[in-house]
Amino acid sequence: GEGLSALRDHENMAEYRLFSKEDGTAIIRTVIEETNAMSTITDHGGYITGPFLIEDGSEQWQVGFDDEATTEAALHDLEKGNEFVVEDRSELS
Predict the structure, then answer these.
(1) Rounded to whole angstroms, how far apart are CA atoms 81 and 67?
(2) How far, in Å, CA of 34 to CA of 55, rounded?
(3) First vs last Cα of the chain: how many Å apart?
């Protein structure tokens, strides 16, 4: 479909591989150039984990940080130039 072609041909796409596609849902592997949001998270020692959910122009990420102070600093810096909503926070022991 046009959506997968647009994704594959996007200027930030370094690698793209389609594993399967069924009824409007695709399982793909991508490698993309680092975005401002990604570098902000990693600059604060954060971890970007998957799987990502991309739907209707929005992305859902799972990210992690080692402590609360680092989390708050990263979220503060992410507000500069990024639009996001924190949907859930949990502490792992």
Answers:
(1) 23
(2) 20
(3) 43
60-70 per-position pLDDT tens digit: 888 999 999 99
Q: Tell me, what amino acid is at 18?
A: L
Q: What is the pTM of this model?
A: 0.68
**pLDDT surpassing 60 at residue 1:** no
Structure tokens at 82: 């990024």
With both helix axes pointing from N to C terminus, report the angle between 68-78 and 36-43 in degrees, rounded to the nearest 10.
160
Q: Could you tell me the CA-to-CA distances from 23 to 10, 27, 60 in Å, in that order?
A: 23, 12, 21
Check residues 27 and 55 and name the one with the higher pLDDT.
Answer: 27
- Rounded CA gap, 91 and 49, in Å? 15
The 10 Å Cβ neighbour count of residue 28 is: 14
Q: Which amino acid is at 69?
A: A
Q: What is the mean pLDDT of the chain?
A: 87
Which amino acid is located at 33 in the chain? E
